[in-house]
Each structure stands twice: as C-alpha cells, then as structure tokens.
Amino acid sequence: MTTPAAEFLPGLTLSRIFYEEAVRPILEEEYPWLRYAAARVGPGSEVLGFDTARSADHDWGPRLDLFLTPEDATAHAADLQRLLAHRLPKQIRGWPTHFRHRQPGNPVGHMGMTDGPVNHRVLVNAVGSWLNAHLGLHPQTVEPTVSDWLAMPQQRLAEITGGVVFHDGLGTLTAVRRCLAWYPDQVWRYLLACQWQRISQEEAFVGRCAEVGDDLGSVLIAGRLVRDLMRLCLLLVRRYAPYGKWLGSAFAQVPVAEELMPSLREAVAAMDYPARERHLCDAYEIVAHLQNDTGLAEPVNPARRPYHDRPFQVLHAERFARALAQTITHPELRALPLTGSVDQWADNTDFLGRQRPVRAVITSCCEG
Prior knowledge:
The chain has 368 residues and is α+β, with helices and mostly antiparallel strands. It folds into 2 domains: 169 residues; 151 residues. Helix content is 52%, strand content 10%. The chain is built from 17 helices and 10 strands. The strands form 4 sheets. A 4-stranded mixed beta sheet has the order 7-2-1-8, sandwiched between helices. It has a two-stranded antiparallel sheet with strand order 3-4. Helix 11 runs antiparallel to helix 12. The N and C termini lie far apart (53 Å).
C-alpha cells in the first residue's frame, strides 16, 4: 500500500519526477554513454490524462518507458533492469516504486513497500519491437500500409501517441509518434465514410423496435447510435477514440460536445419513442453540419427526413457515406467495402489486443 504521506499527483507528473530524480541520475552515473529515450507512453489512464486518485489501486504509480537502440536493448536491457532494481529509491514523493502481484500469474501490479530489490516498472525496449508488440507493426516499418492502419485500434494509437516524452536522445520515438499522430488523409476519409455507414445501418431501428412494442430494444439501439455519433465526432476533430471507459471523457473535450451533449443525454434518457427520435435527429443534424463544415466532401442536406415510406424520422446517413466515398482516390481504399477499421466492427477488448487474428481478418478484407 502507499504510505500515509502520499498525495495524489497526475501520473504523468509523477513519472516525470521519477525519471528526473531517480532514473536519470543512475543512467548518467552508470551508463553515461547510453543513447536512449525516456517516456510514459502505452497502456494506462494517465497516458490519456484521465487518471484520478482511484487509479492508484492498480498499475499506476512511478512508471517509465526506456527505449534503446536494438543493439543496446539486446546487450544491456537485462543488466539495466537489475541495476535499477537495486539502486532505485524505495519511494518517490511518498509513492512506492515497488510493484507486487496479489495473485500468482496475475500481471496487474500494485504498489507496496519492500525491504529488498525494487520490482520496478521501468520497462526497457527497442522502439521497433515495442511497436510490434503493441500495434503489430513490423520493426522495420517506415510508413504504415493501408492494412496496418485498419488493423490498429484507436485505443492503441491513443496510447502510443499520448503521454509524454521526457527525453529522446535517439529521435526514433519522436519520429514514430509524429508518423502515427493521425491517419493519412485518404484513410481518414474512408473511416469517416464507414462511420456514417454504421449509423445508417441502425438509425431506423429505433422506431421499428418501438413500433412492435420493444421499447427496451429501442433504447438499446439509441444508445448504440449515440456511441457511434460520439466516435464520429472524435474522428471529425482528428482525435483517436479511446475504448468505452474513457469515451465519454474524451468526447467531453471536443468543441462540439457542449452543443451536442444535451441531445445525446435526452436521446438515451427519453421515456418514449417520439422524444427519443426527436433528440436523436437533433443530434444527427448537428453532426451533419459539422461534417459539411470540414469541406472534405460535397455538402449534403443535413435535415431529418422520413425513412422511405415508413413513419420514422432519420438522417439517411448513407448519403454522407457516399459523399465521402466519392472523394477517395486511393485505389486500395476505393476497392474496399465500407466496413472500416477493426474497432469500427469489433469492440471486444481481448480480441482487439490480439494482433494475429486482427491482422488476419484485415488482410482478408484488403485482399478481397
């Protein structure tokens, strides 16, 4: 457990202090010749800026990622980690630097005091092998391919490009983060088209469920559409959408959230179908205007309209999907159906974390 004197600090602040006051002095003394990058990136709520005092109960604390050249990582990573285990202070700003596991085989770490070597969370890697483990990119990748982009979940991209780099004596980590900061223009247009297509697939179901007396089903579909609109807004403002736990927090930071949030809240809270439909359509129109304002495609009439000859009001979001699809000139993307990236059609966290099956499915789609 943490000491009573420990006062909560944002995790990125604590990691910076840990690097500057504990790790860097050891590196300067024992490895003065070593070229490295030091950062706090990868998994963790603090990397996205969403950590609170609650986060300290697991996998949070004085943590650091050190990146070496492939040659130095092979030659020195193990020795460096042993050195830090014996030389690091037992705590920093009142927070233990030692992590223990409450159950054998459970990788989740919990801070705790120790009288022996520190089981620290200073991870030492080469940038290429680290990217391969987290994103499935080949260590020698210079520029991701279309299939690479479609196979990388936005949560993972947010983890790689978020956080803070405290020092980069190699330049490699900074270059990679710059490359992955956002999708190439043609991939972005394709993903936007796919997100509008997702909305078009279910927008009429809110009314159809209600019509047959399935009000709970209507509510569930409305919730799915609200989620898709939130992810669409994040795409429009060029921000990677995190997974469910932090989606609302990330959405609240985009400029359109203040205008859109009341309609989204009312859509999921409405006690009857007419109100649910009205608030959803209000939200559709706001996001449709936002899409038109980007100038990425020919403007589309953003007004709600009947769903063919049925008595449901919808946007007919496929109109926006078609408009965006017409601006895609990349031959590989033009040949793809509007199914999108892996997290536009799958949201199982365990699946998204398994690079081999994800890439197998994406490769299959890209090859026809």
